[in-house]
Amino acid sequence: MIAPPAGLRVWLACGVTDMRKGMTGLAMLVQQGLAEDPFNGAVYAFRGRRAGLIKLLWHDGIGLCLLTKRLEHGQFPWPTTATTGCIALSTAQLAALLDGCEWRALGPRRRPELAG
């Protein structure tokens, strides 16, 4: 797997997205629906109603890129509380999401205060 660059910002678009949209339609959704710049180098993740398909959109400095991933079994975990807007993910959470794993459980580990 290609490792994401350091400092990569990842945004997950809450709610359901029409997966018939291509890179231009998703870029317009980022610009108009999320009020973000689709050409700022951040990764934007979208999921459809069936939940087995996600699309990632980002601009790599040269052009607009679109990654599509479909799970053979299961569904991609997605936030259910927020219906609009976007939430930030870490690159570790993005990796877990792309593996089809629960990304919300990943968080900073607490360091023990006492050794005994």
How would you explain this protein's 3D organization?
By secondary structure, this protein is α+β, with helices and mostly antiparallel strands. The protein has one domain. 16% of the residues lie in helices and 23% in strands. It contains 2 helices and 5 strands, in the order βαββββα. It has a 5-stranded mixed beta sheet. The relative contact order is 0.21. The model has no long low-confidence stretch (mean pLDDT 84).
Shape: globular
Q: What's the total number of strands?
A: 5
- The N- and C-terminal alpha carbons lie at a distance of 40 Å
What value does the Rg take, in angstroms? Answer: 15 Å
The stretches of 5 or more residues where confidence is low (pLDDT under 50) are none
Describe the main β-sheet briefly. Answer: 5 strands, mixed
What is the number of independent domains?
1
Percent strand? 15-25%
Compute the average pLDDT: 84
Protein name: Transposase
InterPro entries: Transposase_IS66_Orf2 (IPR008878)
Pfam family, one: TnpB_IS66
Organism: Teichococcus aestuarii
Topology of this protein?
Layout: E1 10-13, H1 23-32, E2 43-47, E3 53-59, E4 64-70, E5 86-89, H2 91-98
Parallel strand pairs: 1-2
Antiparallel strand pairs: 1-5, 2-3, 3-4
Question: Which terms summarize this structure?
Answer:
116 residues; globular; 16% helix; alpha+beta; single chain
